[in-house]
Hints:
The complex is a heterodimer of chains A (115) and B (110).
Chain A: E1 5-7, E2 10-13, E3 19-24, E4 31-37, E5 44-50, E6 53-57, E7 65-68, E8 75-79, E9 88-95, E10 105-106, E11 110-114
Parallel strand pairs in A: 2-11
Antiparallel strand pairs in A: 1-3, 3-8, 4-5, 4-9, 5-6, 7-8, 9-10, 9-11
Chain B: E1 4-6, E2 11-14, E3 19-25, E4 32-38, E5 45-50, E6 55-57, E7 60-65, E8 70-75, E9 84-91, E10 98-100, E11 104-109
Amino acid sequence: EPEVTQTPSHQVTQMGQEVILRCVPISNHLYFYWYRQILGQKVEFLVSFYNNEISEKSEIFDDQFSVERPDGSNFTLKIRSTKLEDSAMYFCASSVSRDKYNEQFFGPGTRLTVL
Amino acid sequence: RKEVEQDPGPFNVPEGATVAFNCTYSNSASQSFFWYRQDCRKEPKLLMSVYSSGNEDGRFTAQLNRASQYISLLIRDSKLSDSATYLCVVNRNRDDKIIFGKGTRLHILP
């Protein structure tokens, strides 16, 4: 069964460093998303991406964040200068279409720890 | 009022019992609704979509009440493997965002 994959599973970084989280969405999916979940908190939407551009972003997704689809398979989230409060689980998701009834498939997540 | 609200629980329920959760949402224009399941330190996985007419999938039944702006999930004949956090998810009308509730923790007791 096709699945969303994410690397690394755990990333530890120093405050102020740049990190890139990587995702490989399901191959025939066209919409891609990033979410984060701070430990013990709810899953929060960060950004959606379609046709090589951001289609929606939340107030969390400030200038420190960027997304890119550098090739036909990878979808990355970059945090330019990490802060302690960026420590969280980051989930990538993808869906076949923008249909609001469509399931989003989630990857296993990358646990980011900022020291 | 929060966009999506759930009772955080935990619900401690004996194996074989029936358990029900509710979730309320604030945006009356919301279009689509889902229940996701999340195991500890794992990704959310879709359990079922919630349709206006209500829908059933095996032991799971979901209902939508648009007038009162809530959705419900009923689990019959609960199994130990049903222990998880159940996330109520609402898709807003005007954008691509889906809004997650904080989740309801369920513990099935042997």
